Backbone:
């Protein structure tokens, strides 16, 4: 579904430039939920920019559904770290979600129902006529997610999407995302620097070290559906958390 | 009473520093409403003082007729089709010149804003031409276009071109890169990215350019009429002065001030409606 082999990205020239991604290889299977853990500045966003076709890789190969990436792939949606800046202030919530759909070849009718569906899924069915700047941070984040969902991607890239909301909203959004993931059957690559979040959401967690190289892979065999209280109380959860914590430290 | 407010700024029809130029900064409606009472009192006080000074002879009455007579004269002129003909002539120069400037400057500015190379190539030319005061081109304009409407339109268009050009350049250069990336990652083709991202992002800048230019256009139109004698309100002011109808001269000056105020108000209102999403026009968060 998503194959990355020997990805390298250098900002500037190879000799004097800034190596943001060193040598990155991993595979994400169909409908898998993979979390990427890494400390600030280790190259997570740069990696996603390469995967989404927004930035050219310096070397290496990226395949999305078997096709090499040399521009934004059609079946991929990217939820930006700066979600509030990725919402367009001159469009209503509804327009923000629906404007990319026509260019994907959806008819007006399809686009309309996909938009309504996605906004309902994130619980914003009643705020469609509002402007993004009239919403709270958590709501804006949900609009950005709804836009990605309405696009009906097969692969969803998310860059620290819940970093700037409070703990309660964050766990609500995590559960929302898990529900969506099951319902829409998408492949998700989710970047975060929160260990608990990664373990709670993922099938598999990759730990990156600067410059974006995989140092640890942890399979997460926690039962689904997951629950904020019972799942996090499992001994296996605690074990994974300490394993990942020490992996991040070293 | 807005009318009266203008009186304090109107009698300074010097080219380059017109009555409208200083009013570009608009406060929020709410704040304005609060400022209302002291302002009205201030204006009323000035009007009364002027009236008394003129009537008592503190100010020579031949050059400073009482305010009440000026207003009376203006009211009389409003019923006279002659005034409207002059306003129409001035406004035609204003409109055609402004439109011409916008039609040329907006696309060019967007191109220069989008392409670093084009910007570099044109920089010297722009930096050389921009500081040329439009009024310095009057002799040239008269030579080429005569003393009529075309000369007026040329001066207006030349002066308005620059603010619109620069605002368009800044507007395109200031498009949020995250918004650009969003459009690209969702596969919008270049033309759609222009229409849906770049144009709306640049719109507030262009609107400001147009509003500033609207004030400049009025100044230049009046200058062409005052200095060269092209038909319009400006020439009517000169004619009143020369023929000794000082009260009417003041009334006409007052009319130009009102015109400038009206244009600015209309521009601000339109901006508010079209750009209500922009931070400077947003209602305070609910
Ligand atoms: N446009 C750029 N030009 C040059 N260097 C860059 C650019 N963007 C990022 N970098 C560098 O690449 C490295 C990785 O940055 P990146 O934004 O990918 O980190 P990140 O893992 O997403 O960090 P965070 O968790 O803080 O978002 C950093 O050293 C950064 O300085
Ligand atoms: Mg980042």
Residues:
């Amino acid at each position: 579904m998503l194959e990355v082999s020997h990805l390298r990205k250098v900002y500037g020239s190879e000799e004097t430039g800034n190596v943001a991604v060193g040598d990155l290889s991993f595979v994400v299977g169909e409908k898998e939920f993979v979390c990427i853990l890494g400390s600030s500045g280790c190259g997570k966003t740069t990696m996603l920019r390469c995967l989404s076709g927004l930035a050219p890789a310096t070397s290496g190969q990226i395949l999305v559904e078997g096709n090499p990436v040399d521009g934004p792939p059609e079946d991929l949606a990217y939820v930006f770290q700066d979600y509030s800046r990725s919402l367009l202030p001159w469009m209503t919530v509804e327009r923000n979600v629906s404007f990319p759909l026509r260019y994907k070849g959806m008819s007006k009718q399809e686009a309309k129902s996909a938009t309504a569906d996605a906004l309902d899924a994130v619980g914003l069915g009643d705020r469609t006529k509002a402007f993004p700047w009239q919403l709270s941070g958590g709501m804006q984040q949900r609009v950005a997610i709804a836009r990605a969902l309405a696009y009906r991607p097969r692969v969803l890239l998310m860059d620290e999407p819940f970093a700037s909301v409070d703990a309660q909203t964050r766990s609500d959004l995590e559960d929302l995302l898990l529900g969506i993931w099951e319902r829409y059957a998408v492949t998700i690559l989710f970047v975060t620097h929160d260990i608990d979040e990664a373990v709670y959401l993922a099938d598999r967690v990759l730990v990156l070290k600067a410059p974006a190289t995989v140092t640890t892979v942890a399979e997460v065999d926690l039962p689904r559906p997951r629950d904020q209280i019972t799942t996090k109380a499992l001994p296996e959860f605690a074990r994974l958390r300490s394993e990942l914590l020490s992996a991040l430290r070293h | 009473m807005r009318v009266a407010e203008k009186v304090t700024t109107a009698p300074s029809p010097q080219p380059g520093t017109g009555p409208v130029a200083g009013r570009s900064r608009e406060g929020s409606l709410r704040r304005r409403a609060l400022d209302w009472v002291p302002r009205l009192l201030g204006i009323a006080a000035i009007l009364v003082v002027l009236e008394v000074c003129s009537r008592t002879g503190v100010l020579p009455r031949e050059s400073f007729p009482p305010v009440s007579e000026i207003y009376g004269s203006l009211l009389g002129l409003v019923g006279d089709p002659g005034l409207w003909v002059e306003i129409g002539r001035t406004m035609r120069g204003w409109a055609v010149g402004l439109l011409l400037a916008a039609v040329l400057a907006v696309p060019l500015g967007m191109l220069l804003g989008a392409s670093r190379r084009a910007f570099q190539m044109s920089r010297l030319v722009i930096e050389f031409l921009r500081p040329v005061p439009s009024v310095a081109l009057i002799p040239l304009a008269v030579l080429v276009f005569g003393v009529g409407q075309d000369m007026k339109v040329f001066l207006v268009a030349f002066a308005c071109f620059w603010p619109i050009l620069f605002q368009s350049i800044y507007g395109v250069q200031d498009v949020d890169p995250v918004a650009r990336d969003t459009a690209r990652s969702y596969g919008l083709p270049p033309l759609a990215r222009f229409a849906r991202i770049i144009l709306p992002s640049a719109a507030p800048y262009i609107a400001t350019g147009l509003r500033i230019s609207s004030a400049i256009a009025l100044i230049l139109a009046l200058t062409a009429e005052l200095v060269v004698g092209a038909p319009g309100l400006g020439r009517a002011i000169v004619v009143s002065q020369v023929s000794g109808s000082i009260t009417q001269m003041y009334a006409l000056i007052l009319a130009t001030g009102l015109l400038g105020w009206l244009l600015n108000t209309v521009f601000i209102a339109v901006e508010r409606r079209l750009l209500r999403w922009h931070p400077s026009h947003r209602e305070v968060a609910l």
